[in-house]
Each structure stands twice: as structure tokens, then as C-alpha cells.
Amino acid sequence: MKGLLMSRKQWAVLSLLLLLICLGGMIGSVVLIDPFEIYHQATAFIPPISNGTQNYSNAGIAKSYDYDSVVIGSSMTENFTPSQLDSLLGGHFIKLPINGGSPFNHRQMMEMAFSTHNVKRILYGIDVEALTYFYTTPKCEMPDYLYDDNLFNDVAYWFNSSVLLKYIPACLKTLGQSDPDQRDSMYNWGSLYDYGRDAVLRNLPAVPVPVDQTPAESVLSQQSSLNFKHNYIPFIQAHPDTEFIFFFPPYSLARWYEFYRDDMLLYHLAQKEAITEALLPYPNVKIFDFQANTDWFLNFDNYIDPGHYGPWINDAIVQAISEGSFRVTDCAQIKENNTVIIDHVHQLTASGTWPDSN
After folding, report:
1. Residue 14 needs a FRET pair 20 to 30 A away by CA distance; which of 125, 153, 223, 253 works?
2. How far apart are the first and last CA of the chain?
3. How many angstroms separate the CA atoms of 262 and 211, rounded?
4. For the segment 105-121, what is each residue's pLDDT rounded down to a tens digit?
5. What digits encode the pLDDT tens for the residues 238-272?
6. Cα torsion at 137, 138, 139, 141 (round to 10°)?
């Protein structure tokens, strides 16, 4: 009986030891290979950076990459080319976009960048619709355990089934390979879609019609105000030596019509004026407005849908910023640009026909 009891103890110890070895092996493989580059930048394989892994990949890029300048924003910023930004704006850029993100999501990206690097320049695309999102709510849920400094909650990374069974094997398949263009190509979707009138108008009515509009509010909405105060201005004030370049991306006329149809056009434009007024007084801020550029927003060949433009527009935006074109230095310019948009929407509904592609 004593020998049998000892064998049971030995079996328990052996089982526990094997379990610990397995757990240690799993943790070690994740830390050593580190597919999302949380602990170190990949040098021996091509990391699985894609639009589908963006919220995970951004954590590693922000922590582990060498950079001093950052692109922040939604999918409107995903087609920027960091090497072009380096050349025309100066610095060493990386992209930290959050596709469909809220200002709070973008705040998370800036917090990570500023806490780990000396950031000298931020290029930030402002989507006017996103200003109405709740100021402390991530529109895209984030793996917060990858964005903090608490090593213990990384257990969610170490024992993640997708990391162990999908992403580590994918990394091992590219062992010994590298992609020197990945910094430029990451998250870029420009070649994946069709462009033109049919693509833009696919889900829109054949005949744009006029609708009743509620006059724009004369006061700033509460959510927009809270977004300014909590997700923009604290960074500008805390980092006076960092240059913040904000820009309003050029949606197509079809997108402005969608806002108009939903009785949100005047509201969004009013919030655009308000954020411009709030940001302009800061000396480390520059604002550029590309939304009234008729060469772009009236030409549906630039778009895959009402809002998303091709990478050549991203390239042109960077070129314009480097030259100081389309820069806003007072609120009157924003009002004039907004009037151009409103006038074209009214012309559209008065004619009852969509413009042909140029």
C-alpha cells in the first residue's frame, strides 16, 4: 500500500511537472517568436500585419518599431506611404490607424506612441462623423492587455489559441524571410477594390432627391466638445514640441449626399467648424482641409465607395501638406469650404442626376 501511495505521489508530481513544461513551452514560444512584436521587432520572419490583425499589430508596432512620427486616423489614412512622408514631411513615420475607430481609439494609439517614443510629428485624419462618438468609448474593441505595461495580463496573449495555432505557424512559414517594404505596404488596401461611378453609387438611389434640413446647431454638441477636451487637446498641450498636422479627408460628393439625406450634413459641418476653432490657437497645430477640392470629390473614379479614396489621393495630400496647400489659418476658410460642399449637394439634388466620372 505504501509503494502504491508513493507511485501516486510520483504520478501527481510528474503530471504537474509535464503541465508546467507544456505551459512554459507555450509561453516561451509566444515570447520568443512574438508574432505581434509586443516584446521585440521581428527580424527572422515576416510578421502577420494585415487589416484583420490591425488592433493587435498596432500594439507591437507602437512599442517595438523605430520611429519619431506617426499617422493616426481611420481607414482614410491606411493608404499613406511612410517613406513618402519621411521624404516630404521629415522624420521616420509609422502608421497606427484604427479602421472605423473613434477618437478614443485614436487616443489609445497616441498614448502608446508618446509613452514609448519621442514623437516629433503626428499626421491625424479627422473624420467629422467620428466626433459624435462617445468620448470614452472605443468604437473598435482593443486588446488592452497588449497596450499596457502589466506583464501578468499578457497571459491572454500567451495562451491565445489563434496566436498559438495560426499566427506562430504563419511566422514559421516565413522563417528567414523579410519584407523591406512592409512599413509602406502595411494596411494598404488601395489595389483590392474597384473604383468609379458604379462602385460609389452601388447602394445609393438612382436619383438624388432634396429633403428637408434642420438648421445647424449654433452651439457645439456635447460629445464633440468632450472629444476635443479629452482626446485631442491634452496631447497638444502636453507635447508643445510635437507638430500636430490635422487634416479633413476628401469624401466624395456621394458621401456628403448621404449626410444630407440623413439630415446630418449641416450638423457635421458645424462640428467641423467648431473643432477648427478649438485647435487653431495652438502654435504646434496645422490644419488642412481637402474636402472642398472639387477635382477630387466630384470625380468618382477616385473612390471605391462614397467615402474611401485611392492611394493616389493620399499621395497628393502629403504633397499638398509639404507645399502648404489647402492649409487653414482661420475659421472663415472652413466656412467657405463648407459652403462649397453645401452648394454642390444642392446642385446635385436640384439636377436629380449623379455626375459622370471624369
Report:
1. 153
2. 91
3. 9
4. 999 999 999 999 999 99
5. 999 999 999 999 999 999 999 999 989 998 999 99
6. -130
Per-residue burial over 314-328, b if 16 or more Cβ lie within 10 Å, else e, is: bebbbebbeeeebeb
Q: What angle do CA 121, 47, 119 make, to 5 degrees?
A: 15
In the block, cell 502589466 appears at 150
Grid coordinates given for 44 = 527572422
Distance, in Å, from the CA atom of 55 to the CA atom of 234, rounded to the nearest integer, reads: 23
> Where does the pLDDT of residue 132 fall: very low under 50, low under 70, confident under 90, or very high at 90 and above?
confident
Cell 488596401 appears where?
189
Cell representation of residue 176: 528567414
36: which residues sit within 8 A by CB, 6+ positions away? 47, 48, 53, 56, 57, 59, 60, 146, 157, 163, 167
Contacts of 299 (CB under 8 A, 6+ apart): 357, 358
**Cα separation, 117 vs 101, whole angstroms:** 22
Residue 348 in grid coordinates: 446635385
Nine cell digits for residue 84? 513618402
The residue ranking higher by pLDDT, 351 or 16, is: 351
pLDDT band at 6 (very low <50, low <70, confident <90, very high): low
**Contact criterion met (CB below 8 Å) for 290 and 236:** no
CB 138 within 8 A of CB 258: no
